[in-house]
């Protein structure tokens, strides 16, 4: 299952982040047509109840950054991590 219970835009996410850290939102055009809308009805249908939401995730990332646990490593970037796997084979 792809669990997601808050379908929000990137702009909405940015606004939520700026409630926790001082940041300016810079809106630019994108040619990226992808959409990540999700429907979690199946998951909810088997009795799953989310315990955390987007706000929790934002706070967790801020905490990890402030504590030094969040590092700028290749494994946190999809393309870089896949290139590492490609070199591994």
Structure in words:
This protein is mainly alpha-helical and 89 residues long. 42% of the residues lie in helices and 0% in strands. The chain is extended and about 40 Å long.
Rg from Cα: 16 Å
Structural class: mainly alpha
Main β-sheet: number of strands, strand sense, barrel status? none
Number of discrete helical segments: 4
> Shape, please?
extended
Spatial gap, N to C terminus: 29 Å
Strands, count: 0
- Approximately how much beta-strand content do the residues carry? under 5%
Helix and strand element order: HHHH
Helix-strand layout with pairing:
Layout: H1 10-17, H2 41-45, H3 54-66, H4 78-88
Summarize the structure.
The protein is an all-alpha fold.
Features:
89 residues; mainly alpha; 4 helices; single chain
């Amino acid at each position: 299952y792809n669990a997601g219970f808050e379908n929000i835009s990137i702009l909405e996410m940015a606004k939520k982040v700026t409630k926790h850290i001082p940041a300016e939102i810079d809106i630019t055009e994108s040619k990226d047509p992808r959409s990540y809308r999700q429907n979690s009805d199946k998951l909810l249908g088997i009795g799953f109840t989310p315990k955390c939401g987007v706000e929790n995730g934002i706070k967790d990332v801020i905490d990890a950054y402030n504590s030094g646990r969040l590092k700028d490593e290749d494994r946190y970037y999809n393309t870089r991590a896949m290139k590492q796997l490609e070199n591994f084979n």
